[in-house]
Amino acid sequence: MSKNKKCLLVTFDYTQKGKSATSFAAGVLLSECRQHKDYGKKFTAEHLSIDMNKNKALNLSAGEIVNIINGQHKLEEIDGLALGCYVWNTELIEPLITQLKDKGFEGNIILGGYQVHESSCEALYPSGDIYLPSYAEASLPEAFMQDKLICKLILDNKFEFASRHSPYLNGSIELDEYQPMVHWETQRGCYYACSFCAHRDVAGNKVHDFSMETIKKELDLFKEKNVQRINVLDPIFRKGRRSYEILEYAIGIGLEAELVFQVRFEDINERLLALFSKLNTHLEFGLQTAIKSESIVINRRNNIEKISSAISMLQDKRVSFEVSLIYGLPTQTLESFFESVDFLKRRGVSEVKAFPLMLLEGTKLAADKELFGIKEGHIDGSGIPHVIESDSFTKDEWKAMRALAMKLTNLEDSACLS
């Protein structure tokens, strides 16, 4: 009889005030592990969150993180250790693995997260044992059950999303009465393929719908618990029968929580707006740029006429919304960024935000960065490299873009470019 393996999932989380103690991504994975047919027989799984907000000022070293892990879970007793790899902790992973082994860990190192892609994972993290590119609902339990490996292993995620277990309904993520905020999703993946975005299913480029029965039960629970705000993680909440049914159900049960959706202007129509208007809704539109040529370069192809029309419709219905732009895009100039901001201001959009571009592992834009002369640098204490220069703008022009972006959100510029 094989040993019941003791496993640990470690995530590095930027927590938000009011969120549940367990991050949504970790809750989803723990949910699938604990509902697995072999859970408790072949493996068990615990979770440890390293709070990046709390520890940011400390600038934790790999050794200090290992001490935190070892202080709560004895390393020599763990058979499988999964580490979440994100853009903000990617440089820590290799030193962390070295320190883990020095401190007595002898099991498999399992690596997953947005930074893990089949084409580059072994080169980026050569000390890993098992790599989980794409989603990990099915592959993480399989990785946890592996005996100690001699050769490296890349596991696919063969998972039926329609039958997923809800982390809220089975208690993997606990909700308090009047929970200030939850993260929630009704589907996984994106229909679009913007070159800067890591949201889509890079393995199959599919969108996976979740069970409508589960979605409705989750909404019932949010209503019962008096959840205050629901951040919907769907990359794009699109018009269509399924979305209408979700909104109609929320209206039918009298859901009072603020629902925050990410939407495209091109999807706005009278029916969708009428449903949004009957709920406590806030819409987030990632326009990124109002310059057509720039939108084509990033494979975002914005329809300016439809965008202008949708803004008018939103304003007529008094629906709460905001629009975000990106600065540092390929072929963008200081003047064109100002034009994008002006496009929105002229149309009376009161809430405009602008974010600096970062290149994410596995995206087309990251692969094409030399084509546009893109240079990166650290702009704050997050440890995340951002685009600060390209063939179309200088570092000083980037700083001028950043100054305008900060002004839009009433933030002081804390950039500390070297």
Automatic annotation (TrEMBL):
Transmembrane segments: none annotated. This is Radical SAM core domain-containing protein. Its cofactor is [4Fe-4S] cluster. Keywords: Iron, Iron-sulfur, Metal-binding, S-adenosyl-L-methionine. It comes from the Bacteria. PROSITE patterns: RADICAL_SAM (PS51918). InterPro entries: BchE-like, Elp3/MiaA/NifB-like_rSAM, rSAM, rSAM_horseshoe, rSAM_sf. It comes from Vibrio panuliri. Residues 176-394 form the Radical SAM core domain. Gene3D superfamilies: tm_1862 like domain.
